Every structure is written in structure tokens, then in C-alpha cells.
Amino acid sequence: MASGVATVWVPVENMSRAVRFYGETLGLDVRNEGDDWTEFDANGLTIGLNARESTHKGRGGGAVITFQPDRDLYDEVVRLTDAGVEFVDEVSQHPWGRIASFKDSEGNDLQLFEAPSPE
Description:
By secondary structure, the protein is an alpha/beta fold.
């Protein structure tokens, strides 16, 4: 039985490009940085960027990470779009919240999630 998430590993092809994306574009704090492994703090969750081995190249994606924006979801979509992020589709509305899907610099699937407002 799992009691929580310790670390999310995200495969990347270009570490410096991915570090810029997660650090500058998403605004996460770097814990430690290296050529093959870089860690970010995502509000207590460690996101580890793991360099792909040359035998495993490909932009097929990997883990899906869902982020909770610090502000209104639509405001964050605008901010990220202005930073060059391309969203896969429009924000989707569900009874359990709203989702905005996009890809990181390495082709991995990411999302913004906003829970519904309490009535």
C-alpha cells in the first residue's frame, strides 16, 4: 500500500531546456541540478528530471503531472501561453473541477487543475 508520493520522475531529452521550463516557466524552485538528474520542489513534492539514455530517445512522454495554480486557472493559462506554452485543447469543465492540458519542453503531459468553488 502506498502512503503518498515521494518523487515524480519525468524523462527529459535536454536537461538544460527542461530545467528552464520547470524553473523559469513554471516557477518551481531547484533543489539540486546535474547533467543526468535535477530535482525541483513542487510545494513539498519532489519532481525529478531524469535524462533519457541515448537508447531510449523519443518524445512519447512519460509521467503526467497535475499542478494546482496559485491563482485563477485561466490567469495561469494566459501567463503560460505568454511564456510560449501551447495548450493541447481548451480548458475542460467537469463536476470535480477544471483541467488545462499542455506539454513540457520534453513532450511530457502536464495539466493545471482547479477544484470547483465551494457553494
